[in-house]
Amino acid sequence: MSSPFQKQFSANSPLRQEKKVKLENWSENPIPETEKKQHPDFNRAMKNIKAYNEKIGTKGATKFFRDSLENKVIKHKGKNYPLIALVTD
Predict the structure, then answer these.
(1) Which of 33, 72, 76, 85 has a CB 3.0–4.6 Å from the CB of 26, allowing a cystine?
(2) How far is residue 89's CA from residue 81's CA, in Å, rounded to a whole number?
């Protein structure tokens, strides 16, 4: 049987559940290319997409993409976007 401490931090615990953030639909409302390069997280986005491109076809590629590009949230002009929105076309 789990202790109260263990139950507090179980996967279903509200303390462990991530806060859901409403994201902009970046394909319908994209960040302009000129503004992408000026964003403080631009280099991180490009580094992560390069790493993902090297992982394509491997077992963990999809999880890496979700964890490093889809689920990372950035702010741009007061709106929330996934990090992938900063990747240049």
Answers:
(1) 85
(2) 16
Q: Report if residue 73 sits inside a domain.
A: yes
Is the pLDDT at 81 greater than 70? The verdict is yes
Whether pLDDT at 89 is above 80: no
Name the residue range of residue 44's domain: 19-86
Which phi and psi (to 5°) does residue 56 adopt? -55, 135
3-state SS of 11-27 is CCCCCCCCCCCCCCCCC
Whole-number pLDDT of residue 20: 75
How many distinct structural domains can be found in the chain? 1
For residue 82, being part of any structural domain is answered with yes
Instruction: Output the DSSP codes for 37-77.
Output: TTSTTHHHHHHHHHHHHHHTTSTTHHHHHIIIIIS-EEEET
DSSP single-letter state for residue 89: -
Four-residue CA torsion sign, 48, 49, 54, 56: positive
In DSSP terms, which residues pair with 75 in a beta bridge?
A: 80
